Amino acid sequence: MSHTLTAAGFTQEAFDSFLDSRSEPGWLVDLRRAAWARFNELAMPARNDEEWVRTDIRLFKLDRFGFPTGAPVGSDMPRSLLAEGVALGGSTVTSDSVVVGAQLAEKWAAKGVLFGDLATIVAEHGDLLRPYFERRVVDASRDKFAALNAAAWAGGALLYVPKRVAVDEPLHSLSAMTDGGIDLNRTLVIVEEGAEATLLSETASISQHGRGFHCGSIELLVEPGARLRYVSLQNWGDQVWHFAHQKAHIAARGHLQWTIGALGSRLAKVNQHVALTGQDAEAQVNGVMFTQGRQHLSYNTHQHHLASHCRSDLLYKAALQDESRTVWRGMIKVDKPAQRTDAYQRNDNLMLSRTARADSIPGLEIEADDVRCTHGSTSGRVDEQQVFYAMTRGYTRQEAVRMIVEGFFQQVFDRIPIESVSEALGEAIGQRVRDI
To answer: Which pLDDT band holds residue 93 (cuts at 50, 70, 90)?
Structure first.
């Protein structure tokens, strides 16, 4: 398997070569250059930063990685969990930041749907997409990783659904990584007024123990009255460093169901932000995490209510075994104009080991005076009586624990409208559960 990296290091010379290798409109190059300048200004996150105090990245060395070159990659691809048994309307495949395949059913293309390689579609439809890029949904100044992705994104997928077009077949994107590879994926989804779509997105390494670096971003734009179902599965190898900024804007009467599965990586630091920007917008956010070994998964979620009569419902569940650790920091922020807000967040943790650790930090910041905002968090161990009962019925201990874990996640699985997707997540988690 060949790799797609330049000499290690994100240097000015390497950045200039990266830009020269691409054929992009001037406005996009300007955005990249501005983000690159910000990348060079920003320091790496410090341990005393509130957002990073529980996540130690001192062993991560950014200068060991470099820009993708677009060189050919091998043909091996990881198994796709989300797409199995699903009749798809289109798909994209990326390997080490290089798009190696994209297709969209003709019936959707005929209705004006765009889906495929982000760079290719921007080159062909720059005038259409420029306003969405310039909205800067993910703030490139947020930290050094956000700036790097904004400056150097490569590969990735774009989905654009025109007004009042309902795509009733799921679309799928897969980003793969070779051992020692790099993924600078960017996903941009635009669902115009009154439109509907479902996108299944997953990342995976060729090798279960693969090394590498992911620095990604996801931007979801749900326009007035539109509906988007977005499923994102992170399934990197257990030596991959995973950093991502993910943000959605939901306009008036828009609806977003966003489900995250986090199973892989050595360390993950993800910011997931949902902004309800128009009246009567709604967001349902679901998270499933399973950790093992010495994995460290840190997720910061933010439900930001900017307009009145909006609803957000967040449910994150994590099961931890061995010496793994999860960190969940949740915030519901309600601006002063966002009266009649209805917001909820909950984080539940199932401890499968006495040496695992789960940190849950829910938070509320409310400036309006007519709201209903609540949060909750629980952590507990597997009930030995339940294990004993199952074993008296002929199950092995491991089978009993697997059933308990599956039941723990069932509340989230029940929220996923595509049965094959919830089954795939359940299967992937079940295969990781060991005797305790």
So the answer is: very high
Tokens standing for residue 97: 């930041």
The identity of residue 197, as a single letter, is: A
Q: Which residue matches tokens 């892989």?
A: 264
The residues that bridge with 319 in the sheet, in sequence order, are 290, 350
- Give tens-digit pLDDT for 241-268: 999 999 999 999 999 999 999 999 999 9
- Each residue of 200-245: pLDDT tens digit? 999 999 988 989 999 999 999 999 999 999 999 999 999 999 999 9
> Which residues sit opposite 239 in a β-bridge?
211
Q: Is 184 exposed, middle or buried (0-12, 13-18, 19+ CB in 10 A)?
A: buried
Q: How far apart are CA 411 and CA 167, in angstroms?
A: 27
Q: Which of 115, 135, 418, 122 is nearest to 275 (CA)?
A: 135
Q: Which two tokens stand for residue 347?
A: 């984080």
- Please give the distance of CA 41 from its chain centroid, rounded to a whole number: 26
Per residue, what are the HEC states of the chain? CCCCECCCCCCHHHHHHHHHCCCCCHHHHHHHHHHHHHHHHCCCCCCCCHHHCCCCCCCCCHHHCCCECCCCCCCCCCCCCCCCCCCCCEEEEEECCEEEEEEECHHHHCCCCEEEEHHHHHHHCHHHHHHHHHCCCCCCCCCHHHHHHHHHCCCCEEEEECCCCECCCCEEEEEEECCCEEECCEEEEEECCCCEEEEEEEEEECCCCCEEEEEEEEEEEECCCCEEEEEEEEECCCEEEEEEEEEEEECCCCEEEEEEEECCCCEEEEEEEEEECCCCCEEEEEEEEEECCCCEEEEEEEEEECCCCCEEEEEEEEEECCCCEEEEEEEEEECCCCCCEEEEEEEEEEECCCCCEEEEEEEEEECCCCEEEEEEEEEEECCHHHHHHHHHCCCCHHHHHHHHHHHHHHHHHCCCCCHHHHHHHHHHHHHHCCCC
Answer whether 0.90 is exceeded by the pTM. Answer: yes
CA dist., res. 295 & res. 325, Å (int): 6
Packing angle between helix 397-413 and helix 419-432, nearest 10 degrees? 150
